[in-house]
Amino acid sequence: MRILRLSWRAAARLSWLVPAMLAAAEPVRAQSPADLELTRIALFNSGVGYFEATAQVNGNATAELKFRTDQINDILKSLVVQDFGGGQVGVVGYAARDPIEKTLRSFGVDLTGKPTLGELLNQLRGEPVEVTGLRTLKGSILGVEKEQVLSPDGRTVQVIERLTVSTEAGLQQVKLAEVQSIRLLNEKIDNELQKALATLATAHDADKKTVAISFEGEGQRQVRAAYLLEAPVWKTSYRLELRQDKKPFLQGWAIVENATENDWNNVRLSLISGRPISFRMDLYTPLYVPRPVEQMELYASLRPPEYEAQRANATGRWQEYETAPAEDAAALAPAPGAPTVRARRSKALEISGDGYMELQQEVPMALEGAGVQSVASAAEAGELFEYTIQTPVSIQRQHSAMLPIVNEAVSATKVSIYNPATHAKYPLNGLELTNSTNLNLMQGPVTVYDDNVYAGDAKLPDMKPGEKRLIAYALDLGTEVLVRQKPTPEELVSLRIAKGVLWLRHKYVDQRDYVIKNKLERPREIILEQAYSEDWTLVQPKEPYERARGVLRFRTTVPAGETVTYPLRLERLADQSLALTDLGLDHIRFYLKTKAVSPALQTAMERVVALRTELDEASRNRANLERSLAEAIQDETRIRENLNTLQKDADAYRRQLERFEKLETRIEQLRTHVAELRQIEEQRRKELQQYLLSLNVE
Question: CA 135, CA 350: separation in Å to the nearest integer?
């Protein structure tokens, strides 16, 4: 028997039972007779890594791999096992995992839902126990009751739990807060409780899980296991050195992180660019299909059927860039026996025209020939691009490393890039960079050095070989740009009528001048970016330098110390529709006076004006007559009220009666006339509508 010691502070919770079981729940790890050593790793940009482990086995053998519990799903989804030399792969075994709630419900004491001590004792009703505290009770549990009592200050209500035990002396109660220990006298129930606690402790275990792979065969042979695991995305960073007498030099580093629980010792490492689809699926947790519960016919009872309502069916350029000149490509090839890098002298400390400082150095900052060599060879891998590290790599677990993967000269031209949305006054110092290497350059930050000094930071997009892109790295304080907008009123260029609708075509003009002032003593290449959408047409100049998504780019050269004006004109045509039946005559007459009206359209619109005039006149006549009719009806009502107040033999009564009779006659005449005018108005409206529907004039 086990004695459970309680304090009054833990009476409402069960967590006091768990710590005592943690030490006993420590799992036993299996020893692997054949060690699989990690030999190859390939990291992808989609957040996964390919891991390959090999071993030499003799005869029947079992190799073990250890993983974190959260990695088991990836192992079950991707594991590939191979036995070379005539062997055969046997069973791949691993510890199954049932939902913890399902396991807990299988014990005689249910610990699901974090039961309190009172709730646990209610589950044990009828079980023999020995309770010690202020007094000792021995008997069977009858239950736990809750009682609300006022606190000593009489302001708050406290809930007190009382345990009722059936003893030889009768039913006795004790407050749970006064209980010091409870001993379960039923050894079977006590064991069930301990097993449930051990299960809870195992669920908290964060140790690795073992996957055992059995190999069956004879003699010495090699075996291999490959799998995918979640891995940090490998990243790239670049250093770009701008040189006056040579091509810019690009140096790229791959940043690799070993986030696994194992050291990487002399592994073959590949870095693969591209984004293959990868996902996670829970294959480790057992799935149970819910099954219906059928009753014996003897116990089944007839119930009124219920039917679900019927468900309705658902019906419901990029600009191509010029390649680098042939002599530039030839200049990239190193001369036989030439060193990889060379050093250059820096200038004295001065403020350059580009607005950044040059620092005096004993040894110039030069990337080429600085002892850094690319350790990667590049090749296409299916639809992806692979950097293969040529020398074995060793990285300790939970450590990172930087590996040089690019170390070549590239083609680039200095430009100043102006976009008013970026800065209204100054352009940005930038480069028109061409990927003249044979490598796919991954996106990443670029630290730019110009003439041995730091010039700024840029961001490199993904670039394929031969692709050209713009990058910017600093504000160009040596160049100013002023945008002079030239407001141009909209112009009505054409009109047409189609089935009663007047279509107006307006022309909108965006005309501006870019006034570019070069304050430096050397010419500047300026690239202007103008926001653009497909409904606008470029008029001046005829063609842009290049088109990009959402912008047009224009290029111009500004001589040293001079100011250049670059004119730009865009036009847009927009159609507007107006229903002629709803359009006022004044508006129609206004459009008749415009220069865009053709003779045929003018004749048609004059006919429309005439029909509208007739319709409006008929409408006015009908409205005037209806107004007179309403006034006559009001007079008739007033006279009728007067007649009710006068004596029938009085002269005033006879006069009012005579007026009443005349009004009745007039009202009848007005009603007849109004009906006739309504017919005339309706006829005029039909004539206008039929004429409008027949029109198709430009």
Answer: 92
Contacts of 25 (CB under 8 A, 6+ apart): 198, 201, 202, 205
In a domain, 318, yes or no: no
Q: How many CA atoms lie within 13 A of 96 on its CB side?
A: 5
pLDDT above 70 covers what percent of the chain? Answer: 81
Residue 202 lies in a domain: no
- For residue 212, the model assigns a pLDDT of 87
By C-alpha distance, which of 522, 526, 546 is closest to 472?
A: 526
Helix (H, G, I), strand (E, B) or coil at 408: strand
112 touches 104 (CB < 8 A): yes
Look up the pTM and report it.
0.61
Asked if residue 658 has pLDDT above 70, the reply is yes
For residue 528, give its domain range.
482-578
Domain count within the chain = 3
User: Rounded to whole angstroms, how far apart are CA atoms 253 and 401?
Assistant: 10
**Residues ≥6 apart with Cβ < 8 Å to 188:** 108
Give the span between the Cα atoms of 532 and 570, in whole angstroms: 9
Centre a 10 Å sphere on the Cβ of residue 232 and count the other Cβ atoms it contains: 14
Q: What is the CATH number of the domain that holds 536?
A: 2.60.40
Q: Are residues 688 and 622 in the same domain?
A: yes
Predicted confidence at residue 85, as pLDDT, reads 83
Within a domain: 560 = yes
Q: How confident is the prediction for the chain on average, in pLDDT?
A: 80
Determine the residue type at 511.
Q
Over residues 118-134, the pLDDT tens digits come to 888 888 899 999 999 88
The whole-angstrom separation of Cα 581 and Cα 588 is 11
- How does pLDDT run across 203-262, given as a tens digit for each residue? 665 456 788 889 988 888 899 999 999 999 999 999 999 988 889 999 999 999 998 888
* Helix (H) / strand (E) containing 296: none
Domain boundary among 514, 547, 578: 578
Minimum mean pLDDT range among 28-32, 297-301, 563-567: 28-32
Residue owning tokens 């059927």 = 305
- Domain annotation covers residue 625: yes
Contact (CB, 8 A) for 383 and 233: no
Tokens 């519990």, located at residue: 69
Can the peptide bond before residue 19 be classed as cis, meaning omega within 30 degrees of 0? no
